[in-house]
Design goal:
- By secondary structure, the protein is an all-alpha fold.
- About 45% of the residues lie in helices and about 0% in strands.
- The protein has 3 helices and no strands.
- The chain is extended, with a radius of gyration of 16 Å.
């Protein structure tokens, strides 16, 4: 038995910026959907249902601009 996890990951989606599609419009809409679900408690409810813990409040406080990712 290990004292700490040997591996962890945070599943996420990605966008192929070379696809030629309007990536900014897509990601803006996804951001809107997630912000609404966070604001109305939907994400917290799902987190509690599936994991028995609220992972969304701390995640919602994270400043994504710190990642330095810019979409064209």
């Amino acid at each position: 038995m290990l004292d700490e996890a040997a591996f962890s990951m945070y599943p996420s989606g990605f966008v192929d910026k070379t696809s030629g599609l309007d990536v900014k419009a897509f990601t803006t809409r996804i951001d809107q959907i997630i912000a609404t679900a966070h604001a109305d408690g939907t994400l917290k409810t799902m987190s509690m249902q599936w994991f028995g813990k609220d992972y969304t409040t701390a995640a919602g406080a994270f400043d994504l601009t710190k990642l330095g990712q810019v979409l064209p």
